[in-house]
Specification:
The protein has 486 residues and is an alpha+beta fold. The chain is 66% helix and 9% strand. It is built from 12 helices and 4 strands; from the N terminus they run αααββαααααααββαα. The protein has a 4-stranded antiparallel sheet, with no helix packed on it. β1 and β2 form a beta hairpin. α1 packs parallel to α11, α5 runs antiparallel to α11 and α11 runs antiparallel to α12. The chain is rod-shaped and about 155 Å long.
Length: 486
């Protein structure tokens, strides 16, 4: 099948797969933080600035190439005038301008411009690399924050479950506690949130909630001292689960804090700055992929290697032209002073007669020509440029093959993440229904606590896997954008 048709079909598949993704989000443009952070990174990151300076320096070379060599001026003064027939020569001055072979200046300027364009695409590649690093760190923070939220909400369910077990152990009325637990389950997490948290990182009260003593726990311990019934094991098992969840929250909070420091470093902000987290809408990105007629045209690495190959082709032409002669045009100006007549015609003393000199200054046009007779040097220069051009062509072919395989792999990862989300949504819904039934059975004395705790573990796992699939989809899309060069 034609490669262009495959790319168009693949892009449309991404759009269709993305429709289900968009349905689970309710993003608000004014609240999106990732575009702002990307802009900060492009403005503040020193690696990006250094890469752009290289491009600017390469542009300055364009002005240097294509210019004629500097003219040469020489002057000489005779300490004793040179007596010539036309007068006494006092000084001599010459001015010479060399000209390269026809077309040399144009080729030099073209080569410099192509190298500057290659530097620009290298700058774009650096921007793509930084953008992906920022997005990847941002999505990992979203994953950690969502896991903290899910774990915290399940910890609250365990608090209510502990109260229910304690009331049941003490022989009290359990209907109110069971209803409270069922209501908490119905309003529990259904996936990652799509709005930023007030504290910036979703960590503001996690430490206090995890370390504060629980009233139900204290009552359970007091009751354990006074009774010692076998049902006390239910309360103790719940407390063990609570400690495990509290430890998970603390560990995730520390990981989130460390990741926030790295993220702020990437975008060039103070390390402790708050980060607003929100899953961005991907519909615009997928539509951009769908509207791209030639996906590989925008990739910075391909463009850079293409420009380098063209520049090396120009270098080979330059080496060929350097093997041609250079011509020079100039003027030679000689300064004379009048010389008086001396001697006598036919004098007896044998003195030779010297007629007077007019002393008129003289101008002599000059032409010079270089002789590039050492051909081995110029042939070697041509061969070197051709080898570099072949190297760029082979590198471009290798990058193109990697892009094609990488694009297909990331597209499959994106689609798999979409399918996983739809599956997990159904699993979470059904697991909550099962949990409600088990809680009702436990409150009535028919169910077992082990079944409830097992189902709660499954629910936590499903919620976390759902968030992980969202992060995988966003990360796969970020890689696709980096490959395409958006």
């Amino acid at each position: 099948m034609d490669r262009h048709i495959i790319r168009k079909v693949a892009a449309r598949v991404m759009i269709v797969a993305g429709l289900g993704w968009i349905c689970v989000q309710s993003t608000v443009q004014a609240q999106e933080g990732l575009p702002e952070y990307l802009e900060m990174a492009m403005q503040n990151n020193p690696a990006i600035q250094a890469s752009f300076k290289q491009y600017e320096a390469a542009l300055e070379k364009v002005n240097q190439k294509g210019a004629l060599p500097d003219p040469q001026f020489s002057a000489g003064i005779f300490l004793r005038p040179m007596e010539l027939l036309m007068g006494n020569q006092r000084a001599e001055m010459s001015l010479m301008q060399m000209f390269p072979w026809f077309g040399m200046n144009r080729v030099q300027k073209d080569e410099a411009m192509l190298m500057a364009e290659a530097k620009f695409h290298a700058f774009r590649e650096e921007k793509n690399r930084l953008a992906f690093q920022v997005k990847e760190a941002y999505y990992q923070m979203l994953l950690l924050e969502s896991n903290i939220d899910v774990t915290s909400e399940n910890l609250e369910l365990l608090h209510i479950m502990e109260e229910l077990a304690l009331i049941k152990y003490q022989g009290g009325e359990v209907s109110a506690a069971a209803t409270s637990l069922q209501n908490a389950m119905r309003s529990g997490p259904s996936g990652p949130k799509s709005a930023p948290r007030q504290d910036g990182m979703g960590m503001g009260n996690q430490g206090n909630a995890a370390s504060a003593p629980m009233p139900a726990q204290s009552q359970a311990m007091n009751s354990m001292e006074s009774t010692g019934s076998g049902k006390m094991t239910d309360i103790m098992r719940i407390q063990v689960q609570k400690m495990a969840l509290e430890n998970e929250i603390k560990q995730a909070s520390e990981s989130l804090r460390a990741l926030k420091i790295r993220f702020n470093q990437l975008i060039g902000r103070p390390y402790q700055s708050d980060v607003r987290l929100l899953f961005p809408d991907i519909s615009a990105s997928t539509m951009m992929l769908d509207n791209s007629d030639s996906i590989w045209v925008n990739n910075p690495m391909l463009n850079m290697l293409e420009k380098e190959g063209q520049a090396y082709r120009a270098q080979a032409e330059m080496a060929k032209l350097e093997g041609r002669p250079m011509m020079g045009l100039g003027l030679n100006y000689m300064v004379f002073s009048p010389r008086p007549e001396s001697g006598m015609i036919g004098g007896m003393d044998g003195m030779e007669y010297m007629p007077s000199g007019m002393g008129n200054n003289m101008v002599m046009p000059m032409v010079t020509l270089s002789l590039p007779i050492y051909r081995k040097k110029y042939k070697s220069m041509q061969r070197e440029a051709e080898l570099w051009r072949d190297n760029a062509t082979l590198q471009k072919q290798s990058v193109l093959e990697n892009l094609e395989t990488g694009f297909e792999a990331e597209l499959v990862a994106f689609q798999n993440a979409q399918r996983t989300q739809m599956l997990l949504q159904e699993q979470v819904k059904m697991t909550r229904q099962i949990l409600e039934i088990q809680v009702t059975s436990y409150a009535s004395g028919e169910g077992r606590l082990e079944d409830i705790l097992s189902i709660m573990k499954e629910l936590i796992a499903f919620d976390q896997e759902f968030t992980n699939s969202m992060v995988e989809a966003h990360t796969a899309l970020a890689r696709l954008e980096a490959l395409i060069g958006i």
